[in-house]
Structures are given as structure tokens and as C-alpha cells.
Amino acid sequence: MKQKIVIKLHMDCEKCRNKALKTAAEVKGVVSVALEGDDKDRVCVTGDNIDTVCLANMLKKKFNDVTILSVEEVKNKTAEEKKKEEDKKKEEEKKKMMEACHDVLYHSCNTCKSSNCHGYHHK
């Protein structure tokens, strides 16, 4: 089972953050580790069949304050969900392109307020 675990730690400096990432990465099943939060005080760990207690205990050996904030299953997106996301992105790109074309073709010149000028006659 693929899962995402978020653990809050008390980390004051960059050295502590690197130590936390390195420690979390050593746990069996961990695929990726990252820092989250405004203060970068949360370690986000993703992987397969991670022993949450083992992870917390390893971090507790090196950090005083360890709090497990969430443990959730990460579901893989189905082909249909991926296709919907791609279609949505394509539709958004198409809309942006249409708006850009509309702006170029139909907006008037800011200097002379003419809809035919487009700023070409002003230097």
C-alpha cells in the first residue's frame, strides 16, 4: 500500500532539516522525502508499506519533539482521471490562447483609442 506520512518536528536550522530528511530516507519502504509548511517544520514521507512507528522512533532519537500529523493512503490515478486532467489542461491552454488572440485583434490602441491602430503609428 502506497502511503503519505506527515510528521512535525522541531527544527531550527538547515542542518537539522537535512538530518531529518536523511534519517527519514533510511526507513525501509521510503520512496521520497520532502519538507512542508511555512517554517519547513514538517517532513512529508511517501513510500510503500512504511512502518510509521519505526519512522517516528528513528526521528525521536535525533529530535525532541516528534508529532505524527497524518498517515494516508495514496491512490494511483486511474487512466480515466489522467485523461480528464489532460483534457482540462488542454481546454485551459486553448482558452488562454483564444483570449490572447482576442486581445491582439480587437483591443484599441492606448494612445489614440483607435481600434485599427494597435500602436503601430506611434513612436
TrEMBL record:
Keyword Coiled coil: yes
Keyword Glycosyltransferase (UniProt): no
Gene3D superfamilies listed in its UniProt record: 3.30.70.100
PROSITE patterns for this protein: HMA_2
Taxonomy, superkingdom: Eukaryota
SUPFAM superfamilies membership: HMA, heavy metal-associated domain (SSF55008)
GO molecular function: metal ion binding
Entry keyword set: Coiled coil
Domain HMA: 2-71
Coiled-coil zones: 69-96
The protein's name: Heavy metal-associated isoprenylated plant protein 47-like isoform X2
Annotated gene: LOC101514427
